[in-house]
């Protein structure tokens, strides 16, 4: 008869094998029956495998940091519809291969929400990848120069959730816009793409340098999608105010500014 340790090793139940003694001791103290003990033993193995798989998926995702929806300060951004975010957190959009577009000025939490949804997807067992738009474009251009564009596009189609951050910060050439369209077209109705942008859809023609390509991209990106338009103050400015690095103008100062005909500073 094969020894228990050998059986666990051959079955690759490493997590159960590592905690078997403590599980047996717990079962004895709690007077568990065979079925209850088996349930706990298998739950221990599954939990270990799930955690290891999650850690691997998060590492492969290349997220800039780990943020969750629970950490998001919704009270600071009242323009966000909580119901829509809760629906997105249920990951129905991933199962249906739909997209999410997060619009708003810099610092309002677009990337936080995108990363939080990506973490949710990874926890559910989905393959996830995060890329800034600049890095994505560089990757596609280099692949084209090295005659491996089709293989690169196929690799970028595999992730069930692809987060593309910072759309609109840098303009694209016509060639770069064409490459981006090919990727969006590949993923269309096959996998979910989350995009963050500081530009409204009306300005996307400027981003891609071609209104025709911009229209084609928007057509595929928005056909099955949810759009969140975040209108609020930058979290970074809020933190600076708390630290006393930025002062909030008084009502009297604001009135004097308007009377002088001055315009508010725009963040580019």
UniProtKB/TrEMBL annotation:
GO BP term, pick one: DNA replication
Molecular function in Gene Ontology: ATP binding
- Pfam families in the cross-refs: IstB_IS21
- Extent of Basic and acidic residues compositional bias: 251-268
The AAA+ ATPase domain sits at 96-228
Q: Which InterPro entries match?
A: AAA+_ATPase, DNAC/IstB-like, IstB, IstB_ATP-bd, P-loop_NTPase
Highest taxon listed in the record's lineage = Bacteria
- Note down the stretches annotated as region Disordered: 241-268
Keywords of the record, alphabetical order, are: ATP-binding, Nucleotide-binding
What family classification does the UniProt entry report for this protein? Answer: Belongs to the IS21/IS1162 putative ATP-binding protein family.
Tell me what this protein is called: DNA replication protein DnaC
Q: Which organism is it from?
A: Halomonas organivorans
């Amino acid at each position: 008869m094969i020894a228990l340790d050998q059986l666990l090793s051959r079955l690759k139940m490493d997590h159960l094998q590592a905690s078997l003694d403590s599980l047996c001791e717990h079962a004895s103290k709690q007077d568990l029956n065979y079925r209850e003990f088996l349930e706990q033993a298998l739950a221990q193995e599954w939990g270990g495998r799930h955690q290891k798989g999650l850690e691997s998926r998060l590492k492969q995702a290349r997220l800039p940091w780990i943020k969750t929806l629970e950490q998001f300060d919704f009270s600071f951004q009242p323009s966000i519809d909580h119901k829509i975010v809760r629906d997105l957190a249920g990951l129905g959009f991933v199962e249906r291969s739909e997209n999410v577009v997060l619009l708003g000025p810099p610092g309002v939490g677009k990337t936080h929400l995108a990363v939080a949804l990506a973490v949710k997807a990874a926890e559910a067992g989905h393959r996830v990848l995060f890329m800034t738009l600049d890095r994505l474009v560089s990757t596609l251009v280099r692949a084209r120069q090295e005659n491996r564009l089709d293989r690169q596009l196929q690799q970028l189609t595999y992730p069930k959730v692809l987060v593309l951050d910072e759309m609109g910060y840098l303009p694209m050439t016509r060639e770069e816009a064409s490459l981006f369209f090919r990727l969006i077209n590949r993923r269309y109705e096959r996998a979910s793409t989350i995009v963050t942008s500081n530009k409204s859809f009306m300005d996307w023609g400027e981003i891609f340098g071609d209104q025709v390509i911009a229209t084609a991209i928007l057509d595929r990106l928005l056909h099955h999608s949810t759009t969140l338009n975040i209108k609020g103050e930058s979290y970074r400015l809020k933190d600076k105010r708390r630290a006393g690095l930025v002062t909030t103008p008084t009502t009297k100062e604001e009135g004097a500014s308007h009377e002088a005909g001055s315009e508010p500073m725009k963040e580019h």
